[in-house]
Amino acid sequence: MLLKLPKNREKIFWTKHSKTKMRQYRFSEKRVLRILRKPDRKEEGIAEGTIAAMQITGTKKHPTEVWAMYVILKRPKGIKIISAWRYPGRTPEGVRPIIPEDTLTELDKILRE
Questions:
Q1: Rounded Cα gap, residues 105 and 38, in angstroms
Q2: Which tens digits make up the pLDDT trace of 56-101?
Q3: The total number of structural domains that make up the chain
Q4: Which domain holds residue 85?
Q5: Which among 4, 45, 81, 87 counts the fewest CB atoms within 10 Å?
Q6: Does 45 map to a domain?
Q7: Which residues contact 5 (CB under 8 A, 6 or more apart)?
């Protein structure tokens, strides 16, 4: 099954990284936008100046979370979606997961674009 990759709209912008992750985790454009509209929890993102939103998914036996990281743009007004991923299990509220250094540098590079 091939998923249609999202296109930049008037107020929603997608990074190449977010499109790659959506293909990897088989997320549709609507799935990621649903996380932004009705998150179960919002926290500070991994990269500086970003916001991460989460929805609980899965079952009691196999709980998972779906995360989306984004930045609110001032000019042009809108939202830039940086990344989306599925986390196995449940993360404690307010505690950042351990992220490898190479991933952090890649995200910083994306934010500078």
A1: 29
A2: 999 999 999 999 999 999 988 999 999 999 988 888 888 776 677 8
A3: 1
A4: 12-90+100-112
A5: 4
A6: yes
A7: 19, 22, 23, 29
